[in-house]
Design a protein that fits this description.
The chain is mainly α. It has a single domain, classed as Growth Hormone, Chain: A. The protein is built from 8 helices and no strands.
Length: 248
Amino acid sequence: MKGWQWLFVVEGFPAVLLGFVTWFVLCDGPSTAPWLSQAEKDELLNEIVQDETRLGQARQNDGLAWQVARDAAAYFLWSTGIYGLSFWLPKILVAAGASTVATGWWGLVTFGVGALAMVWASQQKGFRVLPVLFLATAAGFGSAALSHAVPVAVMSFCLASAGLLAALPIFWSLVVSRQSGQAAGSVIAIVNSVGAVGAFTGPFAMGWLHDLTHGYSAGLWTIAGCMTLGALLVNGAAKTALALAEST
């Protein structure tokens, strides 16, 4: 096989192997966890029952279908941003005048800032900052659409990267915070599947708008608009989570 074919084998084999391991190691719930005492099992099972009751009441106040649809739409919009950035960042920087080698280094800086933002996000509590991160991303893309110089474009994309990557862990925490244990798995699958469509839509829209307008500004403004709409959606979701927390 060719080198790229071996790459798939090497990357896929650990996942397949751990799939078999997980079947025998992962417990179905607290009652089958051998490392818990009986008192700890009873305490966890009681908390799960309380959570099911609390989240069931929350879904009556803010319908489950609407919650899932809103979260899926927000993740779709987020995906258009992250994949639009990942796929088109090098070409946009080259178009702004950066060399091929410099573009690689600028890309490292851009996503390095995003990685630091994720570290910061891991220390945050609550979801109030999530709409702000979406708006910061929108501002980054909008600034990149207006800039014609490499340094300004890099700073703009650093802002966009920071907002996108910092928003990711907070977003998923928000998604599962309003779902019961039984529903969380299905909800995550639905939201993630819709987001995968956004992973195609973002890069495709950027390419189509570039061919149509012979520039990147239209595509960048489109993604900025998507992130602004996403901010409105996650703001509503965050308010729901806050109301649920206050009720308990």
